[in-house]
Amino acid sequence: MLAAAVLWGGIGIFVSNLERLGVSSLNIVFLRCFFTVIILGVVLAVKSPRDFKIPLRDLPLLISNGILSVVMFTYCYYKTIVLSTFSVAAVLMYTAPIFVMIMSVLFFHEKITVKKIIALAVAFVGCAFVSGVVGTAVRISAEALGFGLLTGFGYSLYTIFGSRLILRGCKTLQIMFYTFLFALAGSGVLLCVTGETNPLTYSHEAWLWAFLMAIFNTVLPYLFYTYGLKLTDTTTAPIIATVEPVAATLVGLFYGQWPTVFGVLGIILVLSSVIIVNSKDRKKAA
After folding, report:
1. What pTM was computed for the model?
2. Dihedral class, residue 98 (left if φ above 0, else alpha if ψ from -120 to 50, else beta)
3. Which end of the chain is more exposed for a tag (fewer CB within 10 A), N or C?
4. Which distant-in-sequence residues (6+ apart) come within 8 Å of 92 by Cβ?
């Protein structure tokens, strides 16, 4: 989970270079899914060709995971950034654990413990500090708030759908391959509807950055995160993933973006939330 969060935190490296080369937000989504499907397809073909075959009952969940989670989450995330700031988008994205906690009670009958609520609150406040929302006069519109909350909801759906598919016996690679296959189809339809620039018109350098983004910002972190869902409950997973903005802050150091006092405090809070949610009760452990 931590490895996934750290790799996701490096998204700024790839997005900044792709935007520098003139690649639109929707095309970034499309190219990311395109290379992810190719990479995972090759891995599946070599490792376990039989896993291309999936039960028909799993298709609705996989389609929903690709369209409602990956495409909706990414599109709403970029939209929130445009309507507000990166900091606001990052904080609203981490309303995801709240959605996960509510849906886990409804669909998985998990218990909401005091420890989880404390960890969730500490993590959210930490994200607000790290992202710079606290300590600055930030105002957001109702539209930005709406898209931001949809970002958090879309982010949470991957945990919910992924956990359900794992319970049904689906393998990590299967879930990822078909999720991004349907995400590729969904983003392709959006490109046609919106009339965005044809991806084939971009430079070789842009395609190279998109390929690297697929490996280090998509394939590897999603593999780690999906596999991690097998080893923990659905409410714990997204709380651990709040380490992502901390990782993004540390990446920013290489670009001369030094954190404020609030930022350092936020990093401490986020890491504390991870320790809280993973701490075991001594009596239960005994």
Report:
1. 0.76
2. alpha
3. C
4. 80, 145, 148, 149, 151, 152
